[in-house]
From TrEMBL:
SUPFAM superfamilies named in the record: PDZ domain-like
Similarity comment text for this entry: Belongs to the peptidase M50B family.
UniProt name for this protein: Zinc metalloprotease
SMART domains per the UniProt record, alphabetical: PDZ
Keyword set, alphabetical order: Hydrolase, Membrane, Metal-binding, Metalloprotease, Protease, Transmembrane, Transmembrane helix, Zinc
Primary enzyme class: hydrolase
Cofactor(s) this protein cannot do without: Zn(2+)
Keyword flag Hydrolase: yes
Keyword Metal-binding recorded: yes
InterPro entries xref list: PDZ (IPR001478), PDZ_sf (IPR036034), Pept_M50_Zn (IPR004387), Peptidase_M50 (IPR008915)
Pfam family, one: Peptidase_M50
Annotated PDZ domain residues: 212-301
Amino acid sequence: MSWILGIILLSVLVFVHEMGHLLAGLAVGIKAEAFSIGFGPIIFRRKIKDIDFRLSIIPFGGYCKFKGEIPEEIEEDNGEIKKYKELEDDDFLNISPLRRIIIYFAGPFFNYLFAFILLIILVSIPSTVELYSPTVSVFRDGKYMHTKQGITLAYEYGIESGDTITAINGIKTESDNDILKTINEETIQKGASEIIFTLDRNGESVNIAIPSVEILKALSGERALGLYFGDNLIIKNIVSGSAAEEAELKIGDKIIVINGISANNIADFRPIVMDNYSQKINITIIRNGEEIIREAIPKPVNSKTIGTYGSLGVEFESVPMKIEKVDGVSFPKSILEAFKESGYYISSYINGLKLLFTGKLSLRENLGGPVRIIQISSQVISVSAEYRLKTILSFTATISLILFLMNLLPLPVVDGGMIIFSFIELIMRKPLDRKVLIKIQTIGAAFLITLAIFITINDITQLFK
């Protein structure tokens, strides 16, 4: 069901984009012949004011086709193309370049406008933020965090469980929120060459520098950062039929030792449990002030991402350092805040594109298309009800801003490329040669189709990893 909702969310964004083209066309006096959400075979259609509205079976995009947008070829009897059909006054290619620029730009602009409205709503909603202590637990391998397998960044560079992060690049940090926010700003916004973690380690100040390119890999999901905030091993919930229930563990028990090894935090707990599926382990707990030892056999769980691992079937208490109330921003101040937020998203994405195309980030790991958008959408929609609305608003605004930017790239076929061609015609005061334009568009379309196939295959490959 969540996947269906993800497809609907993507379709809404496509609808917004194509509606921008349609309304702009109507505003400048050009007739639209077809308006489609999706490609391929049509599953539903209705004609409204001579516009053929369609819903097609492949939900990975859409189009708004205007009259005379594609030149019609006239053939001689021998099959050779002699010329293109004479354009009529109300044909798309016969209207002024300026009017075409307006139509091309309107699609991406509507995506920006839609995101802007969502951000206004988002910043207006009051919320609470759980702030956790800047003292960290460090996982040695990403698989224990159910993320990318391999040595984590924090472990590789020497950050240890129990360290308290007091500053990032000299900026004071007092909570997990401060740390994550500062890391993002320093790497993505400011482009710092390295991130210096200032740590309090048993009363001693320690500085650890990590190259920003490695931090960016962690932020993009190429590898695991390895930091976890919160070190409470008090059982909050026990899954019915789990290994914990069979071992007679109870809610409120505090785990302190596993297999003779002190368990001070989640990074101590998970590796032993996950690596010992179907194997007996000894767990020392504190219950009502008394130490008790229980034997448990973690049950095997199969994962496409990290393979088979053991599960005890417990959920630990998550006790924040404090809960901060964030008031919603009142209108009209929310407009300014939404503008700032959209600017932050756009600059972050542009910086991300630079890193992709300079090879600092992996294209395979970070380049995503409709399949990945739908997959992430389904995950976003599945978050707990408490955070669902804000998460959906934030994610939808982000994707809409990405569509705004991607469609303005100066590539043939996409809106940005067509704006450039129209602008050239505006400067030259004469239309471009139709044959040359069609060849450029054909090459561009072939490139985009190839890229789309690559991205889709990559999305599906990542999905089933």
